[in-house]
Design brief:
Glutaredoxin; elongated; de novo design (two linked rop proteins)
Length: 316
Amino acid sequence: MSSRRKPTPWIHRWSRPIIGAVAGLGMLNTGYLTVTKLFGGDAACPTSGCQQVLSSQYAQVFGLPLSLFGFLAYAGILALALAPLAVNPDKNKPLRNELENWTWLLLFLGATAMLIFSGYLMFIMATKFVAVYGTGGLCFYCIASALFALTIFILTLIGRAWEDIGQLVFSGVIVAMITLVGTGVLYSWSNPNSVANAPENTAGEVGPAVTTASGPSEIALAQHLTSIGAKMYSAFWCPHCHDQKQLFGAEAAAQIPYVECDPTGQNSQTALCKSKTQVKGYPTWEINGQFYSGTQTLQQLAEYSGYQGPRDFKAS
């Protein structure tokens, strides 16, 4: 009496090529962001909020674009997924089986770490960007990367017959915990400008210190803008807002009519920011009833505000 072998499910036969294809898409996504960032360009974004996400402190680690590390992670997944397929099972079946076994575990652990990290970034996007911009704060590149990570994670689970599910779950939980703790430590080390740098007895996060010096013209312009009720809607993590402050210099920047829009920022006025529907990105200036988005030169601010004082601005 002959026994018939149980057919191999199609997903088990094709899981590795599919994982490799998804990882390849992830490499294209993160590679595009990395190249545009390293060469000083801006990624094509359908909303200004998306651009704010990609230029925020959460999009870089130790001065390098976060997308670069995402690209390397997807490249690692691609290599692990396709490595066993490069070995001919007819010529070296033991090596093929060995690669199959240990790369599957590494794929699962890597996919778990990527999924947890992507989930953290989705939480940041929802609470710090979508909460301010609404749907305009969605970063479609970030969402795509999170979906790629989720797809890879699911494929590693269903792409083979796992023998010890308990050990797999235990390993996944450990990696998830390490990823969460490591993410917090990583951002605290690479972006130290937070509550620890705020003045004593003042709650809320602050941006990096202004390192340029102010001249009499910068100070006079800042005082004029304040006197006419102008406002600069900003967020502590916004690099373009920091650039604007750098143009004024440290002393003048302390006197400009700065409005903090992030709920976790120092002296936050989120409700005021949300009431201004014209504020689509940071910084946005409100001067004499008109709104001007992006970093403005001091000459432009002088023109917009009707400033009549000296204009020998250092940044000019």
